[in-house]
Design a protein that fits this description.
Patched_domain-protein; 3 domains; elongated; 318 residues; disordered C terminus; single chain; Multidrug efflux transporter AcrB transmembrane fold; transmembrane; mainly alpha
């Protein structure tokens, strides 16, 4: 520490040499705000330092890391007036979005202070509200599905598609580094509406399709309504594709959650639900037999059966 500057003039001289004449120092010039010329006389007005946390596994660990950083900042004593000091990252903004409500700053004796809600209360409220709102949404979706489809067994299978889709979205959010906060909570609830769409179309078409067996009805259903359902999900994903090039947090989380909901919704609607209906599905609606027996898929199936070569049988002669 013998070369450590003891005076302000020595410090500014060594700093200017480091910033201007060394390759390692030039990359830090963008982190400084100053007046004057670095080669002659200058005054630093603001600066920032970059740091990196260790890996955090839970939201509580992230909030604890933020609290410790703020304690360090407020524990540093600067000479003279200190109009502002703070730490800011994208992750901090996510955490603070759950905590700040209205006025988050005020002037106190020339110092800009941050006012935040308690770090434990607000995240807990958001989590509780998310569970309650998801529960109410699922109950409402099941009720509407039961009324529109008119079959309890099929409605339960459709509801399982929505439930498994939500579980898949939540797990993918965890691996994508997303946390439970206001924006992700809203998108999770909206995902219920996206997930129910694909499986409901498949279930309704299955019930309205006659056939000799459940497997035949599933084939006809996927042939007629499968492509439109897939195209609907694909166009939904394409509507958010330009968010891939955005660095905004809101656009990024919207893209991820919507894509997760479409991918899992299409899988459960076009793969999982048809398999379950082919095994455990009910009979077709009697009222729909005359209206759907002449459908294109049914005609193709009948034509293929008619064109199948007959198996020759041996005739015994005495």
């Amino acid at each position: 520490m013998e070369d450590y500057p003891k005076t302000e003039a020595t410090f500014k001289q060594k700093l200017s040499i480091f910033l201007v004449f060394t390759k390692k120092g030039r990359k830090f010039i963008s982190d400084l705000k100053y007046t004057g010329n670095l080669l002659t006389d200058y005054n630093l007005t603001a600066s920032r330092g970059r740091y990196q946390h260790i890996h955090f596994n839970t939201g509580e660990e992230k909030r604890q890391g933020l609290r410790e950083v703020e304690e360090v900042l407020h524990g540093v004593q600067f000479k003279g007036r200190d109009p502002f000091r703070g730490a800011l990252t994208l992750e901090y903004l996510v955490i603070r979005s759950n905590e700040a409500s209205a006025d988050v700053m005020e002037m106190l004796n020339g110092t800009l202070a941050m006012l935040y809600y308690d770090l434990h209360v607000t995240p807990k409220v958001v989590s509780e509200e998310l569970v309650r709102n998801l529960g109410l949404t699922l109950v409402g979706v099941f009720g509407v599905t039961l009324v529109l489809i008119g079959d309890l067994q099929v409605s339960i299978w459709v509801f399982s598609c929505v439930l498994f889709t939500l579980i898949g979205i939540a797990g993918s959010m965890r691996f994508a580094g997303l946390t439970i906060e206001l924006m992700s909570s809203v998108l999770l609830i909206l995902s219920v509406g996206l997930a129910i769409d694909y499986s409901t179309h498949i279930a309704h078409k299955f019930l309205a399709t006659p056939g000799d067996s459940k497997d035949d009805r599933v084939r006809i259903t996927l042939a007629e309504i499968g492509p439109p359902v897939f195209n609907g999900g694909f166009t939904t994903m394409m509507a958010f594709v330009f968010c891939l090039w955005s660095e905004n947090y809101l656009f990024q989380i919207t893209l991820k959650v919507i894509w997760f909901s479409v991918i899992y919704g299409l899988y459960h609607g076009l793969v999982y639900l048809p398999v379950m209906l082919s095994w455990f599905g009910p009979q077709a609606f009697v009222d729909s037999l005359h209206s759907t027996k002449n459908s294109p898929a049914q005609n193709d199936l009948n034509l293929s059966l008619m064109e199948a070569p007959e198996t020759p049988t041996a005739r015994m002669t005495s």
